[in-house]
Each structure stands twice: as structure tokens, then as C-alpha cells.
């Protein structure tokens, strides 16, 4: 991790290193919280941030953090380096924007702005399992008590982690409160087109989780935000 630019993490960095980084826990608490939910210590000792991003499991925590934090992926191939925004990097199930001869060399995750609120919520059957559904949320609260710069990312429910733009629009500029969070949760549930269904959870259950976890996540994120002037 690079303390000067604060956010560049080499692809080979293990999750254990991310978990133990004082810089990450203080300046990128969303990434830190998500890391603690990845598998178990044995998994985090061996698994890398680059491996998780490149693998692009729909239920993995890191793609959701990357999109919520507006991260950038540094990619290297035969024709040189290029930068891909996280939102464009994750394409669909286990598929990224990496070309066959390219590798991911670095992930640049901006540190959270001072006073930002954040929340990482997920539900899995047992601690360490892949999530049946989850959200990564960042936002700010202005002096009037309104939400700004809201990013709501849902994962584990569709082919890839995805921003829930309709719900973001509902929350942006509005006064915080349970009623607003409930409307956003409903919007997220409505925005999901074709929820995953498998042995772990039905499509309806995942849609329900998306609603509940969005409400909870927004409440948590607002509670953590420091009101900005
Ligand atoms: C029991 C168990 C539980 C787990 N639970 C979770 C969980 O809850 N959440 C979660 O997110 N993950 C979970 N994982 C996955 C784990 O987090 C791994 O980190 C992840 O699969 C990637 O592993 P890796 O870094 O060793 O990459 P590899 O397994 O080595 O690579 C994964 C894929 O990405 C490619 N790849 C790797 N690095 C790069 C790179 N730099 N550039 C281009 N391609 C690359 C590889 O070729 C391969 O196709 C779990 C795994 C296990 C075994």
C-alpha cells in the first residue's frame, strides 16, 4: 500500500495485509469492513485483492467496495498500461474488462472523504460464506440534514455488483430518515431485473434482502457521517 497517494494497492496484496493495514482501517473503513467478511483468516492469508477483482464473483465483497469507492483498475498488457474504472471493469458473471493477454497490476481505491458516511452490510448463512446479498454504501450529509453524493452498490443478487441509480436518485438531496430509507429499499428491490436463485436463496428472498440491507445500510451510513457545512 502506498501511503503517499493513500490508495494504490498492488494486485498481489493479500487480504490479510489489507485487514492489518492501519492506513486502510483509518482512511478506507469500507474496504476494511468488507475485508473482515471475506471467508476466514486462512482465505485472507492467501487470497489477493487482484485475484478477487479479476475473478469477479457476483457475491464477492471487493467488487462492491471498488464500485462504491469509485476505484480504478490499472491493467497491463502487450500494448501497455490502461486504467479502467471499477464500474466498467466488472462485466457479468466471473467476467471483467480484462483482455485475454492482460493482467491487473494495481487497484486504486480513493480514501473516503473526511466526514463521509459508509456501510457494508451482507447476509450469509454462516460467517465467512459468500453473501446471499449485500450492499456497499457511501454518502455525505450536509448542514441541512440532506444526503449528498450517495452511492448504493448491491452485490450477490445479480451477475455482478451494480450501482442502484434509481435508489441513489431518491436519496440524493433528501432529508435523512426511516421513511426515506424505506423508499430507497423499495426502489432497489424494484430495480433488480432478474435476481439470482440457487440452493442458498430464492430470487424472492434475495430481492427481499436487497430491500432490507439497503435500508439498514443507509441508516448505518448516515449514523457514521459527520455533518458537513
Ligand atoms: C472457502 C472459501 C471461502 C471464500 N469466501 C469468500 C468470500 O466470502 N468472499 C470473497 O470475496 N471471496 C471468498 N473466497 C475467494 C477468495 O477470496 C479468493 O481470494 C479469490 O477466489 C481469489 O483468490 P486468489 O487471490 O488466490 O486468486 P486466484 O484464485 O489465483 O485467481 C482467481 C482468478 O483470477 C485470475 N487472476 C488472479 N490474479 C490476477 C491478476 N492480477 N490479473 C489478472 N487475473 C488474475 C486467475 O487467473 C484466476 O482466473 C473464498 C474462497 C474459499 C476457498
Which descriptors would you attach to this protein?
229 residues, alpha+beta, Uridine Diphospho-n-acetylenolpyruvylglucosamine Reductase, domain 3, Enolase-like, domain 1, four-stranded antiparallel beta sheet, binds flavin-adenine dinucleotide
Please give a structural write-up:
This protein is an alpha+beta fold and 229 residues long. 38% of the residues lie in helices and 23% in strands. The protein has a four-stranded antiparallel sheet with strand order 1-6-2-3. The chain has a four-stranded antiparallel sheet with strand order 7-8-9-10, sandwiched between helices. Helix 3 (29-35) runs antiparallel to helix 6 (61-68) and helix 9 (178-191) packs antiparallel against helix 10 (203-224). The two termini are 32 Å apart. The chain binds flavin-adenine dinucleotide (FAD). Flavin-adenine dinucleotide (FAD) is lined by residues 11, 38-39, 43, 46-48, 50-52, 54-55, 57, 60-62, 98, 103-104, 128, 130.
